[in-house]
Specification:
Blueprint (H helix, E strand, L loop, with lengths): L17 H15 L3 E8 L10 E6 L4 E6 L1 H6 L9 E11 L4 E13 L2 H15 L17 E6 L4 H13 L3 E6 L7 H13 L12 E6 L13 H8 L5 E5 L7 H5 L2 E2 L3 H8 L3 H36 L3 H39 L3 H46 L1 H47 L1 H6 L4 E3 L17 E5 L4 E6 L4 E3 L5 E2 L15
Helix pairs in contact: 4-8, 5-6, 11-12
């Protein structure tokens, strides 16, 4: 009995190495399944490899098997395989000892239908399209320069790194990542919940509401991308109030979210390029626009400057503007001298006509007549004064009697009379002030006229007045003799001089007379 439990007891089973066992299985499988026909749906097809071979899988609803088409066979196929296509493949089953896998090496391939998954997708696509979820009228333009971008993707994959790298390289903005599973059971619900969650954020909340959403995933088979064909995901994308970019798979991959999104990107990197502009390009455009604006302003200023110069050439010069007023002033000054002479002659004739009637006998008779009138008026005045005194005495007596009779009423009349007198005095003051202002204005006006006609204004312009020893004005040089004392009056004083043959020579010593004050009457008499 003890020998049965010996650990070193020999076994009747033959020993195989791993290579021998794998080779035996390979020979067994190849002999048993040398030529088989398999019906299934193509999954994971990405086109020929760089070597020319094509690797994919055949599957149904319960199992899948790896498949390979060698380069020589690929060139002889009558049609190209496509993702999701149901085919009938003829070939032999073999194993791959390096990884203990088995696969079918396809020699011929023929189509067998569109496949169950593709048929389901087409049916769901027709249903959602009938509801209007894919209409172009629902799609909105993407914001040109979003401030916040929300990304719905896996936080650990290469997709989010590519998106962040491209956004930071083009135009760095604030990016919010909502982490979700992008394949497997329940991943579709997570993607739909993330889209609804971004839309439920308040614009002024703690977490800013994005201006643009990106739903992204890397490439994969139809089964890997099946979450983005989920009806909940498609409805969430169609009902999103934020513009949405779909970036699921590669350029050849199409899912139902691509039809509901506002924009489809061929790759996640392409979605980042659609989301933000290139900052360097914006700066270059801004510099170009600034240069154009400066050039336009400069050209506009040059045009305005040329227009102003043209207008200034059309305007008359200052001499042309003053020519007519200057001529009118000269003519008026010329007429003024003649008018003064004519007016003086008219006044002289009127004075002479009036002086003719002034004889002594006429004056004597007028004086006698005026004396008689004065005596009569004096008599009438004396009688009037007497009557006034009598009237005043009677009034005083009556007032005294009334005062003695009713002093209260008299005091009231006195107060009323005082008020009336005060009122009249106020009105008199106002009237007197108004009269004084009016008289002062008239005097000032007459003074201005007098100053304008005074010869002193002529002296201020550089002229001089020559007088003889008696102070009479000298009007001509012929009225002077040699060695005659004269006085030359300027605007600021008078200088004594003595005439000579060549002209006036100053006497020794020459003294300057002070200018006469404004109060002293001028020696020149009134013209009137």
């Amino acid at each position: 009995m003890s020998s049965l439990f010996e650990p070193d007891s020999p076994s009747n089973l033959a020993e195989y190495s791993v290579s021998e066992l794998s080779g035996s299985i390979k020979r067994t499988v190849e002999q048993a399944f040398d030529q088989v026909r398999v019906r299934g749906e193509i999954s994971g097809y990405r086109g020929p490899h760089s070597s020319g071979h094509a690797y994919f899988s055949l599957k149904d609803d319960k199992a899948r098997i790896d498949a390979v088409i060698w380069k020589g066979t690929m060139s002889r196929l009558k049609f190209r395989p496509e993702e999701g296509m149901e085919v009938i493949a003829t070939g032999k089953v073999t194993t791959f000892p390096g990884s203990s896998k088995y696969q079918i090496v396809i020699e011929t391939l023929e189509p067998a239908g569109a496949g169950a998954l593709m048929a389901l997708i087409e049916e769901r696509k027709r249903k959602l399209a009938a509801e209007g979820l894919f209409d172009q009228a629902r799609k909105r333009p993407l914001p040109y320069m979003p401030r916040v971008i929300g990304v719905v993707t896996s936080p650990t994959g290469a997709v989010i790194r590519d998106i962040l790298h491209r956004i930071s390289g083009r135009f760095p903005v604030h990016v919010i990542v909502w982490p979700v599973r992008v394949q497997g059971e329940g991943s579709g619900k997570e993607v739909a919940a993330a889209i609804d969650g971004f839309n439920s954020l308040a614009p002024d909340g703690l977490v800013p509401r994005p201006d643009l959403l990106i739903v992204a995933r890397g490439g994969g088979s139809l089964e890997d991308l099946w979450s983005f064909n989920d009806e909940a995901v498609v409805r969430a994308a169609a009902n999103s109030g934020i513009p949405l970019i779909s970036a699921v798979g590669h350029e050849t991959d199409w899912t139902l979210i691509d039809y509901a999104a506002d924009q489809r990107a061929p790759t996640p990197t392409g979605a980042a390029e659609m989301a933000v502009p290139v900052k360097a390009d914006l700066e270059a455009n801004l510099s170009a626009l600034s240069a154009r604006l400066k050039g336009a302003v400069s050209r506009q200023m040059d045009n305005r400057r040329q227009n102003v110069r043209a207008l200034t050439r059309a305007l008359p010069s200052l001499d042309q503007l003053l020519a007519l007023p200057r001529r009118r002033f000269d003519e008026a000054s010329t007429r003024l001298g003649r008018a003064l002479e004519t007016n003086t002659a008219n006044k002289r004739r009127l004075f002479e006509r009036t002086s003719v009637h002034l004889r002594p006998d006429v004056l004597t008779s007028r004086i006698i007549d005026r004396r008689q009138r004065l005596a009569e008026r004096m008599n009438r005045a004396e009688r009037c004064v007497e009557r006034q005194l009598q009237t005043s005495a009677s009034r005083i007596a009556a007032a005294d009697a009334a005062l003695r009779a009713s002093p209260g009423r008299l005091s009231g009349q006195i107060e009323r009379l005082q008020d009336r007198v005060a009122n009249l005095m106020g009105k008199a003051d106002v009237a007197l002030a108004a009269d004084l202002r009016r008289w002062r204005g008239e005097v000032a006006a007459q003074d201005r006229i007098l100053q304008s006609l005074s010869y002193r204004n002529v002296l201020k312009r550089g002229y001089a007045l020559v007088r003889d020893a008696e102070g009479a004005p000298v009007k001509a040089a012929s009225g002077l003799v040699i060695h005659q004392a004269i006085a030359i009056q300027f605007a600021d004083g008078t200088v004594d001089a003595v005439t000579t043959e060549g002209g006036a020579a100053p006497a020794q010593p020459t003294r300057k007379r002070p200018e006469r004050s404004a109060q002293s009457p001028p020696k020149q008499g009134s013209l009137f």
